[in-house]
Specification:
With about 210 residues, the protein is mainly alpha-helical. The protein is built from nine helices and no strands. The protein has helices at about 10-50, 65-70, 75-85, 95, 100-110, 115-125, 130-140, 155-170, 180-205.
Length: about 210
Amino acid sequence: MSTGIAVAPVSEIGQARALMFAELDKRAREIEEQQKSTWVELADLCCTMRDSELWREGGYSSFGAWLQSACPTSRSYAYMAIGIREELREITDSELKQIPLGNAEILKHTPKQHRVGKVLEAAKAQPPREFIGTVIHEAPDSHLEKKVCHRFRPTSSQSKKWQEVFDMWRVVNEDPHAPVEDVLEGILTDWMEGHQTQYEWKVEHQ
């Protein structure tokens, strides 16, 4: 007894799936390339807005005020992009647009003489975790280190206090865009140095 339901031949289903794969694969690769280059465009846009003081035309009191309004959720990303863009001036725009922001940040801390050849090509193709290993191997004088992931789950009040301390450290050390890792290292170093004598005394008298 016929149910009246037509079943597409396997070959047609296979062709449809192959077509869908090709379309999605193409779009994924397009997004990958866009993400690599967008940070360069954002940095250039922000630098023009800042250096030409175009933010005044919008009625803003400062570049920072404009950036807070234009990029409220990615302001730190924008500042990072600007800093990296200004440091990597010797690398051409066409090459920078092939390098994701994470790898560009690693290049920023790599001596200029090593930002060429194998290292530069690796920056375009490798994920950050792999790329930093390449830089460490090819440019040991860069003094870069692999990052170790530490997981913390602070409460909202603890997180607020941490942020207040981080912001205070940046102001005191006149480094407003210092990454959290550097801030935390600085805080811990200051604490250790401030308690070193007390620590040594306690260890000695235990």
